[in-house]
Amino acid sequence: MALFLALLLLALSGSSSPVAVRASDHGDDYMIVAMSSLKLKSACLGHRVTPPLNSTWMPLDLMDGPCSSPSSSGAAAPSVDELLRRDQLRADEIQKRLSHNVGDDEANGPANSKVTQVNHLAKIKVELGSRKPAKTTASQLGIHPAATVGGGVGSGTLLPGVIQTVVLDTASDVPWVQCVPCPIPPCHPQTDTFYDPTNSGSYAAFSCSSPTCRQLGPYANGCANNQCQYRVTYPDGSSTSGTYSSDLLTLNPTTMVNNFQFGCSHADQGGGIGFDTQTAGIMALGGGPESLISQTASTFGRTFSYCLPPTASYVGYFVLGAPGVASSTSRYVVTPLLRDNRSPATFYRVLLRAITVAGRRIDLPAVSITGGGAAVLDSRTVITRLPPAAYAAVRAAFRDGMRAYRPAAPKGSLDTCYDFRGVRSVKLPRVALVFDGGVVELDPSGILFDDCLAFAANRDDRMPVILGNVQQQTIEVLYDVDGGAVGFRRNTC
Questions:
Q1: What pLDDT sits at residue 40?
Q2: Cα–Cα distances in angstroms (integers) from residue 285 to residues 145, 294, 304, 393, in the given order
Q3: DSSP 186
Q4: What backbone phi and psi angles, to 5 degrees, belong to 329?
Q5: Which residues are the active-site residues?
Q6: HSE of 191, CA atoms in CB hemisphere, 13 A
Q7: What pLDDT score does 137 carry?
Q8: Residue 217, pLDDT score
C-alpha cells in the first residue's frame, strides 16, 4: 500500500484528470519517425536507457532477435501472418476464460487449436537447481542474505544450476520448465541444457499428501509414485504436465529463491505449445498462489515491473520488487488494479477509458467495461484488442492522419497497413491510452507493427479489451498487486 500511495502522489504531481487531457496537451498531434528506428538491426545494440538500480534487476530480450540466444535447430522465425494467427487464438481464449457466459469447466477446458505461443515474447534467463561438492556459505557465493527468499541457503552446496530461458507470462500461474526425462515429442527441442532433477542437490518432488499438492486446485493432476502431478491448460487448449516440485531458483547473482515451486514438465501437449527452441518453459507472473510473484510475496511484496524494448535489437529489463527511486523528471501514470471475484485471480486488469489519436479522443463503450470486464494486461498477447466500435473510430482517425501514405494489403488481423517503400521518415499520429489516473502516450513502436496499425477489433463489444505487449514497448509497467495499482513510466528502455 505504501508503494501505491507514493506512486499516486508522484502521478498526481505530474498529471491532471484524464477526462480533460488530450494527446495534444503533451505536444503536437503528430511526430516525425525515422522508419529505420522501427526496423530490426543485425546486431544487438544493448540498452537504450540505463537499467534501474535494483538488486533484483535482470535483462530481458525478445525472441528471434540479435539479442537472443541462437536457435540450435536453425528453425526460422514464424511469418507475420503465422504470428498474428497464433496471437488471435490466444486473445480468443483469454476472452473465453473471462466470459461470464460459460462455466468454469468450459472456460478452462481445451480448445481446438494446438498453438499458444508466438515469437514476439519477452524472456529472461534464470538458474534452476544446484550442484553439491563441498559445503559453502552464502557469503562465499556472493549471495546477499537479505535477497534470499524462502529461508537460509541450507547446509548443502549451492553452486550454479542450469541456465533456463523462460517466457514472462502475466496471464498464467504455474511456472515450469522441461525436465528429464522429456522425449521429443511430446517435449520440444531447446537450446538450453535440459534440467535434470537427479543432478540437483536441492530438488524435491512434492508428495501427494503434502499441503502444497492438496492446494493445487485446478492444476492438480493426480498422483504417480507418491509424487504430486500437475497439469496446466493454456488459453488455446495446449498443456504442460509432469511432477510438481521445488528447487533453488537463482534470478541473478544476488537474488535466490529457496524451495521455488514449479512444474517439472515431462510432456508439452499440443504440438510442443509452439515454443521456439530458445525457451525451456514459462515464468508465470499471474495473480494465483503458485506464481513467482505470490511465492516471493513476503520478501518483495507482490510487486514487479518490466520494460519491453522497442525492437528485438535492444534489451529491456525485469525487476522483482519495488523499483529504485525515480529521478525528479520521471513520472508514473498510476491506475487502480481491478479485481472481480467472478473472474480468475490470474489476470491483471485496469480500466481503459479512451484512446486518443492525433488529439482526437475515442471513448470506449461502457459495455466493454461492465459487460466484458476491464482491460487485461498481458505480456504474451502481441496486438491490443478493442471493442469493434472503438476500433473502427481509432482506425478512421489513424487513416485520416495517414492519408499521405500508400495503403497496403491487410496482414492477418491487421487491416490498416501501408507501403513505406522509399519512405525514410513518417509523420505519425500520436496515440495515447487514457486510464483512470492519467494518459500514457505510446512509443512509435507501439503504434506500428510491421507497417500496420498495431490494434485489432474484438468480435463484439462484450469482449474485454486486451492490452498487448506491442503497446507496452519502451514503457515500464509496474504491478503493485498488494497496493492495488499499476504504474506506467514512459521511455525507460
A1: 86
A2: 24, 8, 9, 33
A3: T
A4: -90, -5
A5: 169, 378
A6: 19
A7: 41
A8: 92
